[in-house]
Amino acid sequence: SRYKLPFCQQINTTQTSFTMSEEGHKRPDKPNEDTIFAKIIRKEIPADIVFEDERALAFRDISPQAPVHIVIIPKTFISGISGAKPEHEAVLGHLLLVGQKVAYNEKLDDGFRLVINDGPKGCQSVYHLHVHLLGGRQLKWPPG
Question: What is the pTM of this model?
């Protein structure tokens, strides 16, 4: 079965302790490595995978916000960009290069956007770092 996770309302349902923000989005008090993205990495949950190597995995978002909406995740657990450390520098750069490769494969020659949401007010939905690749239409500025 496919999991339907509404945009900006996804949470890690394996968490038991949460802090509510003013917007009502839940942030786990203790980030848990067993997120829905970890289950996708382990192939316990099906996903339309468009790229995979030893450090990253990219798959089509099941609630796309653009004609092309792909989620790029590191296979190493990092709860969010604010949780990144100097030792994550190589994998962080790799995620951007994966975004470039996938955009090329998706024929997004006219442009695309890479987005990282962080924390409740940044509309982070799953507390496993992920990069959104959006394209296939004219994107607007400012976002959100």
Answer: 0.81
